[in-house]
Every structure is written in structure tokens, then in C-alpha cells.
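This protein record is not my work; I was only asked to verify it. Where you disagree with what is written, explain briefly why. This is what I was given:
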Amino acid sequence: MSRVLLLFTLLFSPLTFAADVYTGFFSSKAVSGYDTVSFFDGTPVKGKSDFKTEYQGADWLFSSQENLDKFLADPEKYAPQYGGYCAWAIAEKDDLAPGNPEFWTIVDNKLYLNYDDSVQKTWEKNIPGFIELGDKNWAKR
């Protein structure tokens, strides 16, 4: 089922996603409402509406004022690469697919999201190569 959804989103991505930050179909929340700073602590958690900011046209939620303050001080450090879209899809397909905060990697102090477990396993086979290609493809957008 997940592969059908991935195919559907890849086919219709120009019609369904904003280019800068992935928020899903019916949401304005970046990273599905997860606190992006928490990924860097090794334990991703959902953010709370009490600790919220707007950045790049999306709402970013945090689990604490401390994490919100860290994000506000350097949002590019904590925001996921490729706007939170699937890093493998950007690299391999030069296309937009949803990034899922359950499938994540920190590489060189940068956060990358993937679509699902099988995509992440493919991503893990050549992370440096996918990052190099993903950076080139993302720069063209």
C-alpha cells in the first residue's frame, strides 16, 4: 500500500505540494508537527501548539520554549534538508515525496527525512552519494 501512495504522490507532486516546506495535504505543520530540535537530541517528539513559530510558510511546533528558542536562533541548522521532503526521492527521482519523521537520519549535523522504512534502507546504502545528488537537484528548484 505504501508503494502505491508513494507512486501517487510522485505522479501528482507538482499539484499537491508547496515547493519550500512539506506540510501534507490538510496541514500547515512542518515535519508533521514534530519538534525538529528534538531529532538532534536523538529522540524525536511531537511539538506543542504552545511553542510555535512560522517559518518558510509553515507552522513549526516545539516541545519546549528552549527548543523553540534554539530554532529561532538558527532555523537552517534545525530545519530538515530539502524542505522535509523525502531525501531519497529528491536525490534519485528529482521529485517531491512526503518526508516521514519516523524515518530520519542526521548526517553532518543535518536532518534528512525519508518516506518509509524500505526507502530509508535504500537511502542508507549510499547516503553520501544521495546527499550529493539531492543537493544538486534541490538547488535547481
Observations:
- Residues 16 and 25 are 7 Å apart (CA to CA).
- The two ends are 29 Å apart (CA to CA).
